[in-house]
Amino acid sequence: MTLVAQTSNQPLIVWDWIGRNLANIWDRTVEHIVLTVIAVGIGIVVSVVLSLIALRWRRSYPPITWITGLLYTIPSLALFTFLVPFTGLSLLTAEIGLVSYTLLILVRTMVTGIDEVPPAVLEAADAMGYSRRDRFLRIEVPLALPVIITGVRLATVTIIGLVTVTSLIGLGGLGYFILRGLQTFSSPIGTTQIFVGTALSIVLAVSADLSLVGVERILTPWREKRIG
Amino acid sequence: MSNSPMIELIDVSKRFAGTDADAVEHLSLTIEQGEVVALVGPSGCGKTTTLRMINRLIEPSSGKVTVAGSDVSAVPLHELRRNIGYVIQQVGLFPHRTVEQNIATVPSLLGWDSDRVRSRVDELVDLVAIDRSILQRYPSELSGGQRQRVGVARALAADPPVLLMDEPFGAVDPVVREHLQRELLDLQARLRKTIVFVTHDIDEAILVGDRVAILNTGGVLEQFAMPGELLAHPANPFVAGFLGTDRAIKRLSLLPIDGSSLEPLPPDGIDYHSAGAIDIGVSLKEALDAIVSGNGHHVAVFDGTVCLGVVTIDMIHRRLAG
Ligand SMILES: Nc1ncnc2c1ncn2[C@@H]1O[C@H](COP(=O)(O)OP(=O)(O)O)[C@@H](O)[C@H]1O
Ligand SMILES: [Mg+2]
Questions:
Q1: How far apart are the first and last CA of chain B?
Q2: Domain A2-227 belongs to what topology?
Q3: Ligand 1: which of B48, B50, B200 to mutate, judged by most atoms within 8 Å of the beta carbon?
Q4: Ligand 1: which atom is nearest the Cα of residue B167?
Q5: Domain residue ranges in chain A
């Protein structure tokens, strides 16, 4: 089976190439997942800390969103270029960049999730004699989970897309194929590599999103039946 | 302790930060053990603020509140609150916990073992007439009336001597509200809690309150008396206005038919068809209703199938005067 471009008889996808490079494709896919998990994992930890600070001292929230918003808007290419002189072509460089893109989404959703807990629920919890700490951990956090998980989903999908850019500093997971493909764009092997890199990234993003929906279902069985 | 007041507010004032008037001003109120006190007044008069100062959800700006003889500011907060049940209009059930877990909240906080918690939940389910089949449901799956019952069960879980209720039935439809009001009265007849019941509905206050405190803007106590006394002798025009233009009718609803002072049947017999008939157990309000919708003079009173005599318009008039 071969897809054929209309203007020429050259195949767009060389399926043989895929068969010959399965091991490499597998390794790059794993690398892609690892880069994503590290970025989202560290992003969550940093965001929890930032959110706790923002919730404890409300006046720190605007500057926190301002800074994380700034990090979010810096073009990733520019950020890597800026970091390389300091941290080299390394995993550290890649992760600093990736983590910085998760913070805005995660902090926003964490703080919003906690803020949206209904006041009557908090009032009831206080009146039942919950301490501040227990109220936070046992009432507010569980009730904020749906919003927080939505943030994690968004951050994860964003990072799966962004990981490809780290191919420019020698990593990139599936982005490696896209970069190689672009360098040899006119050849059938090139388009095949772009196809493999892109398609698998999409598959990863969709699977990650669906798994997180599953996690949410398990963690929040109390939510009304809903779509998506 | 049985004859000292259960709750005392002594010259309590509250001014919220950033406001230039007291929400509650020099309020003193003494609530006895085992009574239901209804706090009633126009919206914004300070009812909720007053209630919340009792379990210290709000700290008074000045004055003192005692519960069971102890200054509430000297009792550890969690200890105070676990001994005071609290029910609010929005209920505030925990959405992520099942009905059973919601009811078990305070017992769990108190560290009861799971057998004791389970048997207590079982008792409460019967007490507030919750269907056992909803125990494993989440609050979002309940009707308004069910939520309110679960809210009451949760508040009663650790058998607190005091119950604070803030417009608990304000969000349910009138039919369900009437049910819940009756159930509360039945419950209270068995439990004899000390209940502070906030409402803006004077009829509800008269129905549920052993005594009714009428508050005016700024938490000013205008009158604090039993419903009959309030209706018979409103202390001032504000109270009279708040009670409405049908005070006499409202009083009648509180007065039972006095079986010993019925007039005998007229010697020439009575035409039950035009006179109408009522049961001895109803109030004078129903008697009056039967009279004005019957022959306009009297109504026959029955105990089962036995006719005991008649209630006349004159008798009703004398009862109101006396
Ligand atoms: N947290 C608050 N901050 C400022 N003002 C408040 C606060 N809570 C209540 N108030 C004000 O205090 C007054 C009494 O409120 P409230 O006790 O809720 O009245 P009610 O329950 O009788 O309707 C109102 O004027 C209200 O606006
Ligand atoms: Mg109120």
A1: 36
A2: MetI-like fold (1.10.3720)
A3: B48
A4: 21
A5: 2-227
